[in-house]
Write a structure and sequence with these properties.
The complex is a heterodimer of chains A (300) and B (378). Chain A is globular, with a radius of gyration of 19 Å. Chain A is 72% helix and 4% strand. Chain A contains 11 helices and 4 strands. Chain B is an alpha/beta fold. Chain B has 2 domains: 202 residues, Rossmann fold (3-Layer(aba) Sandwich), CATH 3.40.50.2300; 151 residues, Response regulator (Rossmann fold), CATH 3.40.50. Chain B has 12 helices and 14 strands. In chain B, α8 links the parallel β8 and β9. In chain B, α2 crosses α11. The chains are: A mainly alpha (300), B alpha/beta (378). Chains A and B meet through α1 and α10 of A and β7, α7 and α8 of B.
């Protein structure tokens, strides 16, 4: 029983990583109906920005809570900037074109970041410094809970609530929802849709940057291709939860993380992805809009 | 006008020929980047050192040696195209590489087909030299390594129940796990769990939790250093304090950095692995080499560097004895290699084109430093 609980803890902490990345995916999709395939790579950039920043400022040598927060903020700001640059240069010129064109461009941006990253950072993995050192919150013979997964989970949930607050209770959030509902009508009502879309990318990319840092704390191996698979899985998580739905992204991430861990722990790690994706197919067959998704109504 | 062009071409050809005649081209393929980057880099350092020495001593057959290096990024597919390029485009006379058995297995058939001798410094899977009579290795093989570690675990550490965590897509890891399990069971031990992972995985907690539930006294992890370091961290995070054991794939200057919780290498403190040489061995041959290597590269050489150095010297010696760079002649001389004095012990190539060499068991101590534990003879 305790082993099962431990696997559950493992699964939730692994799933909260998917959740963190899926949040950004789902928000951009909600506003633009664009699957931003470069999202996983912005997540990678976040980890690298943090890596170089913490080494350059010597935070890596003597980690403090303040140093960690500074690194986190730096990575988020840098990623937000990158997100806006990507949006302005790659997606904005195509806004009136068919949706497929933007999708292919997103794949192009993703490949550019991956290969550009290999050129800039080198292809061999780097190891992220322990800015927050690992310690155990609860420990018995068969159940151990350490601080890092709890921090990641708490941050994912906090960001989820913050996003919901921004989208549902602020003016810019209202503008986002209006843009998501009908871009032209929103523009006619005097909403600067270009700014709203840029803001969406800024928020999504800052989230990805935060995700990169948090994931690198728990899984310190970082390399330019690290965004590829988690990005894909987070996309699956977002679809599973109902793409465009913010709590759905977190729920989808958890389900994917827990099912992968259970399969690896009780069946075989060889079938890890196979069974996790089979689950996706089954859920989508039963509920094509995803668990929390709805056909109409509130997107974002 | 036409004459001038023809003259130009002729001169160009002559110059080209003259240039080609002045050097002996040796090909090298390895993982200079990727999750096993230090394997390729260390091997290259060793080979470069040996080549510089050989060239300083007058080269081979009156010519200088030129080593052409190809990076396979740690991928078997890339390894096979790297070897194809070396053999068909660069026309090398012999090939040195790889470290990882899966990559050597990908490159070896191309050398065999083209009758180009290939010497792998450190691939330990038995299948590598079974590819054909042009494929040689200068290190021990996994049946021996697995048996030695099983004996060490059972007899020296008094472990009766062990678990295995292997990389199920990697020939080296699968082979070594199998040989370890065979001997361990024969000795009367029990393998309580066998779990697997893939290279590039980030999360190993599911497998480790399942292993923990079976209550082993040690875990054998025949993997490569990047994953081993991450596994060690996560094992300690889950409160698994038992010793972890492994093979020569652990050896890397990066291992301690990866397996760090608070101090360098602390996640692997008091863990053991088998290796080709011990850097604290007082043998003057080894200490001289370490000094030379440190002066050049500013770090203590790992086993891959030592074996790369030995492999290059063994190959150059064979070419010298053959008096030719023709594949069949070099192959015949390589096969005759007897008691070649290398840094990692004397090398004799046997009828299976493998080398019989002793191995050492190392313990990882304070600060990730290796401590010599035992020598096992074949």
């Amino acid at each position: 029983m305790q082993e099962f609980l431990q696997q559950l803890v493992n699964g939730i902490s692994w799933g909260s990583i998917y959740a963190l990345i899926a949040l950004g995916y789902t928000m951009v999709y909600g506003v633009l109906q664009l699957i931003n395939f470069a999202h996983g790579d912005v997540f990678m950039l976040g980890a690298f920005f943090g890596y170089y920043f913490s080494r350059w400022t010597k935070i890596a040598q003597e980690p403090t809570l303040f140093g960690f927060l500074a690194t986190l903020l730096f990575a988020m700001a840098a990623c937000a900037l990158i997100g806006i640059i990507i949006e302005r240069t790659a997606y904005k010129p195509l806004r009136t074109r068919p949706r497929l064109t933007a999708l292919i461009t997103a794949i192009g941006v993703s490949l550019l970041l991956e290969n550009g990253g290999q050129l800039a950072f080198g292809a061999d993995p780097k190891f992220f410094p322990s800015l927050i050192s690992e310690s155990k919150l609860y420990e018995s013979a068969n159940l151990v809970i350490s601080n890092l997964p709890v921090i990641i989970l708490a941050v994912s949930l906090a960001l989820m609530l913050l996003l919901r607050f921004i989208v549902l209770s602020t003016t810019i959030g209202k503008a986002m929802r209006a843009t998501a509902f009908n871009r032209e009508a929103a523009a006619l009502m005097g909403i600067n849709t270009n700014n709203v879309i840029s803001f969406t990318f800024l928020l999504g990319s800052a989230l990805a940057g935060a995700g990169g840092i948090l994931v690198a704390l728990a899984y310190p191996k970082i390399d330019p291709l690290m965004g590829l698979l988690p990005g894909l899985k987070a996309f699956v998580a977002a679809v599973l939860g109902g793409i465009g739905n913010i709590p759905g992204a977190v729920l989808g991430g958890m389900i994917l993380g827990v099912s992968e861990t259970m399969v690896a722990g009780y069946i075989s790690s060889t079938f890890r992805d196979a069974i996790a994706f089979a689950l996706l197919v089954i859920i989508l067959l039963v509920k094509p809009t995803g668990l929390l998704g709805s056909r109409v109504g509130e997107k974002v | 006008m036409h004459k001038a062009i023809i003259m130009g071409l002729v001169i160009g050809l002559l110059v080209g020929c003259a240039k080609r005649d002045n050097v002996i081209k040796i090909g090298e393929y390895g993982s200079l980047t990727g999750t096993t980057a230090t394997f390729g880099i260390s091997t290259k350092n060793g080979i470069d050192m040996a080549t510089e020495e050989a060239n300083a001593a007058g080269g081979l057959l009156g010519k200088k040696i030129q080593v052409i290096v190809e990076d396979d990024r740690g991928l078997p597919d890339e390894a096979s195209s790297a070897v194809k390029k070396l053999v068909t485009q660069d026309k090398v006379v012999a090939v040195l590489g790889e470290v990882a058995s899966s990559r050597s297995l990908a490159g070896a058939p191309i050398c065999q087909e083209n009758k180009i001798p290939m010497v792998t410094p450190s691939s330990t899977n038995p299948k590598v030299t079974e590819i054909g009579d042009y494929i040689f290795r200068i290190c021990f093989i996994d049946p021996f390594q697995g048996e030695a570690m099983a004996k060490f675990t059972f007899e020296n550490l008094k472990v009766k129940k062990a678990a295995i965590l292997k990389d199920s897509k990697n020939d080296y890891s699968v082979g070594l796990a199998q040989f370890f399990a065979e001997t361990f069971k024969k000795l009367g031990g029990q393998i309580v769990a066998v779990e697997s992972y893939f290279e590039g995985d980030q999360d190993f907690k599911a497998q480790l939790t399942s292993i923990k539930g079976k209550r082993p006294e040690a875990i054998f992890i025949p993997g490569y250093y990047t994953e081993v370091g991450l596994i060690a961290r996560q094992a300690r995070e889950l409160g698994i304090g038992i010793p972890l054991l492994g093979g020569d794939g652990w050896d890397s200057p990066k291992l301690a950095e990866i397996a760090t919780i608070k101090a360098p290498g602390d996640a692997l403190k008091d863990c053991y692995f088998s290796n080709h040489y011990a850097s604290d061995d007082p043998n003057p041959v080894i200490q001289d080499f370490i000094q030379k290597y440190q002066a050049k590269y500013n770090e203590v050489p790992d086993a891959m560097a030592v074996l790369g150095y030995d492999a290059a010297h063994i190959l150059y010696d064979a070419i010298k004895r053959a008096g030719s760079t023709e594949g069949p002649k070099v192959r015949d001389e390589l096969a005759k290699t007897t008691n070649f004095p290398g840094v990692a012990g004397q090398t004799t190539i046997d009828s299976a084109r493998d080398a019989r060499k002793p191995l050492v068991v190392l313990k990882i101590g304070e600060g990730g430093k290796y401590e010599y534990m035992a020598t096992v003879n074949p």
